[in-house]
Amino acid sequence: MRRRWAVIASFFALSGSSFAQQFPMAVDLELVIAVDVSYSMDIEEQRVQREGYVKAFQSPDVVRAVRGGPLGKTAVTFVEWGGAAVQVVPWRVIDGTQSAAQFAEELRQQPIRRISFTSISNALAYARELIRTNEFRASRRVIDISGDGPNNAGAPVPVARNAAIADGITVDGLPIMLETAPDSASIPDLDAYYEACVVGGDGAFLLKVTDMSQFAEAIRNKLVFEIAGIKLSRVPEQPVARVSAQYRRPYNCLIGEESQERSIGK
Fold first, then answer.
1. Which of 59, 110, 116, 264 sits a CA distance of 20 to 30 A from 103?
2. Is 199:205 a contact under the CB 8 Å cutoff?
3. What is the SS3 assignment for 169?
4. CA-to-CA distance for 253 and 137, rounded, in angstroms?
């Protein structure tokens, strides 16, 4: 009898992932939070950024946005990226204050890491795969990507962005434009770069951060907008908000790659 139960348990352990994909859990939103941890972000900026996300999931505003959905459930995972991407917190279902606090605490306990290079395209491809292979089903799927510089490794960003859009995924952006000593890979109009080259899909938008003190508010507001599915065209513009237009203004989306080539050639 014990052997029979062992065989049954083994079967379910092996087939669990395929079972979950065949019978996914219904949620309102599948959200990948993809955060830049490249070397252009110094340790203090990373600390403040991490703290901003921790505080956001402890915020009643974010919990209210989750509970306000038709199902009251949002699936979230947290990714950190540079030239490569790492899933820091696996997929978790947020459905109230307790689960949101648990997600915040799990994130808070993760070590601060740094990854060489800046590949927004690799981060988008990685996030897209996390959405494609997860055990959830939602009417909305979003990649929320933040960064302080343009793509300088991997495929061109529009290629990865367009592939995500083709899968029905919306890409939102959080360009970080702090008034610190300029990095060799930085550009002065990162928000315009994100608008033209990174964000896209139904309801896509971006919020820019220009001061360390804005991190917590910008992150909280962005998560509330994304989770609640607010159309920012109907919302008064926030001090740190810029709504993405649905057209593409001319922009050199290879500016980061070209800058990287010039620095290598020196």
1. 116
2. yes
3. coil
4. 32
Q: Are 105 and 94 in contact (CB under 8 A)?
A: no
CATH number at residue 100: 3.40.50.410
Is residue 5 assigned to a domain?
Answer: no
Residue 13 lies inside a defined structural domain of this protein: no
Tokens describing residue 61: 């505003």
What percentage of the chain exceeds 90 in pLDDT?
Answer: 71
> CA neighbours within 13 Å on the CB side: how many for 217?
11
In a domain, 2, yes or no: no
User: Judging by beta carbons within 10 Å of its beta carbon (0-12, 13-18, 19+), is residue 157 exposed, middle or buried?
Assistant: buried
pLDDT at 60: 97
DSSP-derived letter for residue 115 is B
Q: Which of 90, 112, 111, 113 is nearest to 102 (CA)?
A: 90
Residues of the domain holding 181: 23-265
Question: How far is residue 173's CA from residue 152's CA, in Å, rounded to a whole number?
Answer: 17
Tell which residue, 186, 168, 135, has the closest CA to residue 15.
135
The structural domain count of the chain equals 1
| 264 band by pLDDT with thresholds 50, 70 and 90 | low
- Band (pLDDT 50/70/90 cuts) for residue 37 is very high
Residue 16 falls within a domain, yes or no? no
Per residue in 66-123, pLDDT tens?
999 999 999 999 999 999 999 999 999 999 999 999 999 999 999 999 999 999 999 9
